[in-house]
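Example record

One chain of 252 residues, shown exactly as stored in the release files.
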Amino acid sequence: MNGLYMTDRGRVRPYNEDSGSFTPHGEMESHALAVVADGMGGHSAGDVASAMSVRVMEYEWDETSKMTQEEWLSWLEKAMLYANKKVYEYAQQHKEYEGMGTTLTATVCVNDHLIVGNIGDSRVYHYSYDKDEFHQVTMDNSVSAELYRAGQITLDEAENHPRKHMLTKAVGTNPGVSADIYQTTWESGDRLLLCTDGLTNKLSDEMLHTLLKDNEDLQTAGQLMIDKANELGGEDNISLVIAEHDGERGRN
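Predicted C-alpha cells for this chain:
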C-alpha cells in the first residue's frame, strides 16, 4: 500500500500543533499505521501532546508482530489508551504543560481490513474506488456532534454550532478515556483520508471526494487539499494522511 503524511501551519496561527505519520510495518507487507493528532493547550503544550501521542503509537507499532484481526483491534485500543496515559502523566509532572491535550485518530491497515480508532474530532474518510463513494468512518467527539446524534439539532445546525469545537473527550486531559473503535474493509484502488479539523472546517465532503478521486498522485491530492483550505482562510493548522490500497488491479 502507498501512503503519506502532510501538514501545514496555515495562514493565521504562528505555530503548528498538529502531528501525524504514515508508517508501513518493517516486517509485514500490506500492514501500515496511519495517525493524525491535533494538539491543544497552546504553544508548546499542544505541540508536545500531539507529538507525544504519535510517537507512542509509532513505538508500539514497531513492537507488533503478526496477529489476528481481533488482536489488532485490541492492540489499537490499548495503544491509544497508553498514549493518553503518557500524555496525562507528562502534563502532571511538568506544570507548564498542565491541561494540554490532543485529538488522536489512527487506522491500522491490515491487508484488506481497516481498524480505526478515534478520540476527539479529527476524522477518517473512506473512498471506495469501485462504487465511487466517499463517507466518514469516524464520529466526532464534540458537543455539537453529540447533540446532533441525540436528535436535538440538525446537521446544518451542528456544522455551525457555537460549541462545535468543544470536545467531549481528548487524549491527555484526564487519566482515563475511551476510544471509539470501528472496523471495515477496503479493496484495491480504495483510499483513506485521515485529517484534522483545519481541513474539514474549510472543505466539504464533496470537495474532499473530488480531490481524492480526480488526482492519481497522492502528493498532488494532499497538496491541493491544503492549498484550498488555505485559500479559504487557513485559520487553523492543516494535517492529513492519505493511504491507498494498491492491490492487483490498482487505479486506471
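Notes: Helices lie at 45-62, 69-93, 143-149, 155-159, 197-200, 205-214, 218-231.
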